[in-house]
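Hmm, how's this folded?
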Amino acid sequence: MIEKLIRNIEATEAHLCVGLDPMLGFVPAHIQKKAYEEYGETLEGAAEAVWQFNKAILDAVWDVIPAVKPQIAMYEQFGLPGLAAYQKTIDYAQAKGLVVIGDIKRGDIGSTSAAYAVGHLGRVQVGSKRLQAFHEDFVTVNPYMGSDSVKPFLDVCKEERKGIFILTKTSNVSSGEFQDRGIDGRPLYEWVGRKVAFWGEEVMSSSYSYVGAVVGATYPEQGKRLRAIMPKAYILVPGYGAQGAKGEDLVHFFNEDGLGAIVNSSRGIIAAYRQKGYEAYGPENFADASRAAVLAMKEDILNALARR
């Protein structure tokens, strides 16, 4: 699947993905109203509003982006109806040719980790059949419990030719409480980066590994160090836009071939209609505002790469 991600990036010239993290506060009132009229102010109504919001954004941006990243927590909060909306979002995005990165941040051991890997990337045995459940193309993985938590995902990646992004240096302010702690002369995030490179050797495509890393755009110097440690790993870069990072902060996340990183923006795109510079679109044209925000982000990143 890493090959498809790279093909999509090259075809769109967009090194970005759209984070589909639809809090109800982002969903315009007219969409919520219609959903509640049909399903009531219920979990089903909330999930329908989220789904219709996602669908409109996907219809507006699918041809100018390579991938989307739905955050499963934003769907789980609405229970089973929310998970149904998550599945519909995955199906719809993949039908449009997009790569789907499921932001699930799972990390456990043994049969539990294996079940997460099978449920999201692989196939579960049901009688004589092996069936797909959520079937994302990539998922995010928390490595805190060590190799035992990652190996089941590697096994499924080999079998299904899918991929994972391992949390390495995250974009949040308090990430340094643990990730920056020194161990034998190196911060913890560097030790994780070395393991990412090691694990990635097991599942290589012709150019990049199926094992990537999550490294926040808000830490460009750490990103530069990790890029050198993980030359064959694709880096998923959160923190653009709403968290303060700009294109010029991202250049060190890329390799000399102009590839190696995909930058995520969530509310900066899906809630663009509420932000400075896009107010004229208004709630009725929220999806058009999202497309404009995607194109502006694409140009910002490309200009930064051209200047480096």
